[in-house]
Amino acid sequence: MNDGFKSGFVALAGRPNVGKSTLVNSLIKKKAVITSDKPQTTRHKIRCVLNKQNAQIIFIDTPGLHKPHDLLGERLNEKVRSALSEVDATLFMVDASQIIGKGDAFIAREVGKFDTPTILVLNKIDKINESDLSAQEEIGRDLGEFNNIISISALNENNLDTLVSEIIKLLPTGPKYYPDDVITDQPEGVIIAEYVREKILELTSEEIPHSIVVKVENISKRKNKDIVDVDAHVFVERNSQKGMIIGKGGRMIKKIGQMARVDIENLLGSQIFLSLRVKVKKKWRKDDNLIRDMGY
User: Fold this and answer.
1) Cα-Cα-Cα-Cα dihedral of 192, 237, 210, 58, to 10°?
2) What is the pTM (predicted TM-score) of this model?
3) CATH homologous superfamily of 6-170
4) How far apart are CA 86 and CA 98, in angstroms?
């Protein structure tokens, strides 16, 4: 271990859609986490690794804290609280382009329950002017006790170097937890399933996002060919949702597959053949056994 080398785990907390996953992807320069403007896009507690010359930061991207409407929602909130309890620092993110309101205050109180160094991160500054940003920073100061307040644009990568420098200051001296070539602890099957779910979120209506889950059943390389076969099941709760995802003449599921293939081929570095099958699991979000079976 190098003298003075810093390392540690950093949780990202905030309402859904404030840009947590976009920030992680921008920092590690790789698409490790899916993004969408739909609620509950992030469902897993995903570790992503940023290596610097003097530090290793392991970011833990979490689902957005929210008022749960079912057992799945409760389980996702548990993941967030678990992450907050076991890290060296926390980034509490808010959307600077929106009114900082009750939802942000609720999460600030949750974050404040843990004796963890915290940076308030005002994201999406590319969408507001300087005077509005100053006002938002003042409102942000009233949300709690923070070690620092930093304004950024995760999408445009504005002020990220400053953010990283301030994070490193909060970390303890420690070892490298992961080799330099590791950027996430997620198995390939989980990442591929998330890529498929991202495309479904992008292409389908508001009825679908909460009900959808994707499981990769098989990844196998063909003999003597640079082709990887990927078989995945798309689970929904109702037959009507199944019809929406398949689409007329299978056009929707074909488009989902075409879009997902681009990300999967970039991940695997190989041509892939993606097979998607849509199945119905009624009320899976309210069944503890089914939730566990789906990987949550």
Assistant:
1) -30
2) 0.69
3) P-loop containing nucleotide triphosphate hydrolases (3.40.50.300)
4) 30
